[in-house]
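During the no-cost extension, the postdoctoral fellow (Dr. R.K.) reprocessed legacy sequence entries with the updated structure-token encoder. One reprocessed record is reproduced below for audit purposes.
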Amino acid sequence: MEINATTFNHHNHTHCIQSAMDTARSICLQRGVRLTESRAQVLELIWQSHRPIGAYTILEMVSAVSAKRVAPPTVYRALDFLLEQGFIHQIKSLNAFLGCPTPHLPHNQQSYFLICKHCGNAMEFCDAQISKQLRKLADKAGFTVKAESLEISGICSGCM
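Re-encoded structure tokens follow.
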């Protein structure tokens, strides 16, 4: 398991945004899907920080930079595409979205989230041992896992 504590600290997100956009464009070319202007705009807005962001906030932000009011289905279609491609995650406990730093990994790779209750930043990490243990516990209970989401709230090192 690799967790980078600096993810929670404040930094210039220009690199994060550019890297996420470049990766998304490259993956879309490889998969033969289109990263339309509206999809790219939503992805870029999500990467403005490491805080999960709600769909209505995204809608307001898109409308603010657009010359016209944007209809909710436009944003929801973009979010669906970005989720489907693995470019973002949905943080279910917050009903919000967060950029995925590893969209090149297989979609079946499970991600876990550390969410700071003070600053709102969230960090994704993957750990095969955690996933294996959870599956083992589910199997022992006679339970078939269809979806897995683990969201841990607490206080990040920057807020301590």
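Helices lie at 14-31, 37-46, 55-65, 72-85, 128-140. The beta strands are 88-91, 96-99, 112-116, 122-125, 150-154. The remaining legacy entries will be reprocessed before the final report is submitted.
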